[in-house]
Amino acid sequence: MSSGATGAVVAVRTPVGAATAGRQPRVGVRTLALSRRALILISWIVPFVVVGLWEILARSGVLSAHVLPAPSKVLGTAVGLVRDGKLIGDMGISLLRAATGFAIGGSIGFALGTLVGFSRLAEAFLDRTIQMIRAIPFLAILPLVIVWFGVDEGGKIFLVSLGVMFPIYINTVLGIRQVDPKLVELGRVAGLSDWGVVRHIILPGALPSILAGIRYALAISWLALVVAETIATSSGIGFLAMDAREFLRIDVIVLAIVIYAGVGVLSDAIARALERRLLSWHPNYAGAKR
Amino acid sequence: MSAVDITADAPAVVVSGLRRAYGERVVIDGLDLRIHRGEFVALLGESGCGKTTLLRALAGLDAVDSGQIDGPAQPAVVFQEHRLLPWYSLWRNVALGLDDTAGRAAAQAALSEVGLGDRLEDWPRNLSGGQAQRVALARALVREPRLLLLDEPFAALDALTRIRMHDLVKQLVATHRPGVLLVTHDVDEAIALAHRALVMRDGVIAREYAVSRAANTNRSHPEAVALRDTLLADLGVASGDAHTRARAA
Prior knowledge:
Chain A is mostly helical.
């Protein structure tokens, strides 16, 4: 998934791919003249140009402040809210909700996934039912959640947990089932106990799949939180945005969106860093920079 | 070491009256086998004759229907594939199942013995096929097994690497003196390595030949040539252009 960059670099100075033995020659002929550093630079320049353009359009009045306020104004609002102490508190609450929901849903998903991954009996008991519940778009049960939990923390955490549980469950089962039985046999020959086989062979073998589940679940937890916070809440980033809507504070609404986006990007970066660290043995992850 | 030394040693494994059937098909039918410590035994036979079934039974990987295996509960096994855990460094692979502190020292010694003592922290993916199989040998020998089972461990290697592996494995067996059972398709490999060559047929050891030291070390020695022809005839391949056919088998 992230090995594309190296391919492009190798292709730069080798006309017919003499030095790229074993690799697919890259098709991007136009990129041949550019170094890797230039490509990275371009990828960073584009978003800055977009924001710059947005600023110019907003200031010149082409974009009305009621439609989209200038980035500088949003930044000013952010600074103001931080000074009030309001923004940090709301962010903290939102992060806590996401983290709590992730921990609960992730643990349940991992535990069920491990159980079903190892035991055909557990699979018979649980898997079909879990897959049926999974078929419900979890955001569709939002009205039910509000009835059950009211507007308290419980409902939001429940929703995040539910969303997080399934990707971790599925990827844990898949990861465990995909472990090479020949390696398990080797573990037996090496005299490992049952727990030794799990610890040294099955869990490490399932880890790439489990981490992919975690990465996907992180994105879902954030999505669940956005929905939960905009409907029934009295604190958090979502509340900040809903409250601002009442007063037509578009700058605050944009700020909330930017914060959601920022945290989303950050959590993905953390998940990738985790993959790089834990899967450094894996040829598909080793040395991947992006 | 001469044949006299070998039989004087304690047995590494004694098999008597072993029987294994898959449904109607009897694969092992009352097989007897005795391997001493320090003795290198090669087991030949046509595909599907039950060689691998026997090896897996000795390894404790498959059940048997009846008969007795009197040997170590945990013999060491080297398979055709190296079966290294890609998520562990080389020393952790070798020390698998040992405790960490003692394991590291033992793994270092074992890896040095197979010529990879400077690659302790390296990953399996950086190894060539021959190197990976050397690590698998180190992993098998790190526990000083009484019985070492080799299931065509060199079959997937290129010819030159295979010859180097033969020398290495001979030297390792001479040092550690386990009883060795090598399952192979390669008659030349059996002659180069084994003290005794067995031919399995109809679920039993049908033929048994002592391999002289001269035949071990020189493949064109008259004894080696004669034994090669005999073994190939036993395996149902006519001699003459037998050598090339043996490779193909």
